Amino acid sequence: MRVALLTEGVRPRSPRGAGGWCDRLVDGLREHDFAWYVLAGTARTDGAAAGAGAEDDAAAARPAIHELALQGRRPAGRAPGALRGRQYAAAYDRLVRALLRPGERSGFGPGLYRLAELARADGALPAFLVSDRARRVLERVWRAPGADTSAGQPLVCDVLVAADLLEQCLRPLSAPWYGTAPGGLGAADLCHVVGGGPAALPALVAKQLHGVPFVVTEHGLHLREQYLGYREAPYRWPVRALLLAFFRALTEETYRQAAILTPGSAHDQQWQRRCGADQARTRVVYEGTPAVERPAAGPEPAAPTLVWAGALEPGRDPELALHAFARVRAELPAARLVLHGEEAVPGYRAHCAAVAERLGVADAVEFAGRPRSAADAWADGTVVVFSALSQRRPRLLADAMLSGRAVVSTDVGVAREVVGPTGLLVPPRDPQALAGACLALLRDGERRARLGLAGRLRAQERFAVEPVTGAFREIYLELVSQWPAFPAAAPDAGAGPRPRPFARPAEYWITDRRHTAPADPVTADGTGTDGTDTGTNGTADRAVGAGSVVALSPGRLPAAGEAPDRAAGSFAEAV
């Protein structure tokens, strides 16, 4: 099937050739045709496709890549006329009211889709969003009675800044990606949004205009990251509140319209449910990592050593590790503490060094900086320690477990879900409990080895790449079995047959067509030699219920009046 992969912020296929999650998904699902649609930070100036090089023999086999810059030069376009300008203003007014008036939040989706419809008709949306008319609409609604101004009354500078930021957020609505021509999202069988946020806008529009379903995968929730990031944003509080309202409304609309949501952890699943996600359409798919093939760390260091890794910032709470280590060293004078990580807050490394000096353990604490690799960091220690106040993503914990070292972590975020019974969990901000757990493992080599092996096996089972690709293979096939086939090409209601699930048999998607028997000849009037209607693609178009499967051989279709093979009693069995 044709899958549109929508991402934001990073270009797939980095020039260094280091494949990411999207690369592993595409490589594991080679039976499908992928195309990348990337919302990049800035426009490329070299005119080359991302990650494509003349020296790469596999460049021709890579998916097509379409980019749209969210920053920098605005898309070109003419200003709308008087009548169309009023239509743009009405749609923009409805969208802004949904952000600023609590009682009108239901207007976000209609306002968004109306802007997309107008942009599709004349391409004047970019010019409208930067026009004085759009700014006047924003200022009028923002300063009118009933608007939510709990973050402060907006100034003129706030209106100008917020209008510019909203233009960047809404830029995907005017992307040249819509339509049923090759390269258009309307020609895709489904969209896969990776990361959420503005990357979901093209998928929402494609579903509205063409009926294309979409899947959303989030490894670390976009809305949560926006709430954390805007605490330090260089804008006044009214602007921050307006932008956060936009991202919150976009997230709610995305969760409402998505066919399936695949968070990267059960912890993220709970966040999604708080934002309105339907639990019946949510499935946890862990983020696979090729590190599962990495061998376990070698022998333990001679001296009992605690190793800590992460960004040097208050949220990671290295001070807790230092206070716990002071208690450990009082019991084991030969113990050492190695902290790996770069300074994320200016002056925080010096602050931690001063804490170690005050506790009298500075001579046994090493600030090792950024390691060459995560595997090198874990190999430096006897026990791995995590002292964070929040653990939003499981990647670092899983990587430590894959080393085969025993893990001690604060019981926050995804820690209990990832570590489970293979490590020791302690309350956050409790140095005594953390020190006790570390001492228990440092003094018991047999227990360390047992927990380390159990943790490695648990991480290999949950974070292998193959289960991830297998999960999305099933999700893709389930969607095409339950969604109308070729919705973009469907005629208007009442003008012909409605699109139906399985207009193409399931074998079309999973069979290597290069090795299948040739299909029955097709006559000029679109029927097979036996009179069977082949439809527009030469495949029998048979009405099948969304919850059933007709098992068809790849090279032959059942003749008219012939009962299909019902040996496969369910969709899972047929696949």
Compile the SSE list and pairings.
Blueprint: E1 2-8, H1 21-28, E2 33-40, E3 64-69, H2 82-100, H3 108-122, H4 125-129, H5 132-143, H6 156-170, E4 190-194, H7 200-210, E5 214-218, H8 222-229, H9 237-257, E6 260-263, H10 266-274, E7 305-309, H11 318-331, E8 336-340, H12 348-359, E9 365-369, H13 374-379, E10 383-386, H14 395-402, E11 406-410, H15 415-419, E12 424-426, H16 431-442, H17 445-462, H18 465-482, H19 506-510, H20 571-574
Q: What is the number of beta strands?
A: 12
- Cα-based radius of gyration, to the nearest Å: 28 Å
Q: Give the helix/strand class.
A: alpha/beta
The main sheet comes to:
6 strands, parallel
Strand order of the largest sheet: 3-2-1-4-5-6
**Alpha carbon gap, first and last residue:** 15 Å
Percent of residues in helices = 25-40%
Coarse morphology = globular
The number of helical elements comes to 20
Low-confidence segments, ≥5 residues, pLDDT <50?
Answer: 11-19, 45-60, 489-497, 513-575
Strand percentage: 5-15%
Overall mean pLDDT: 83
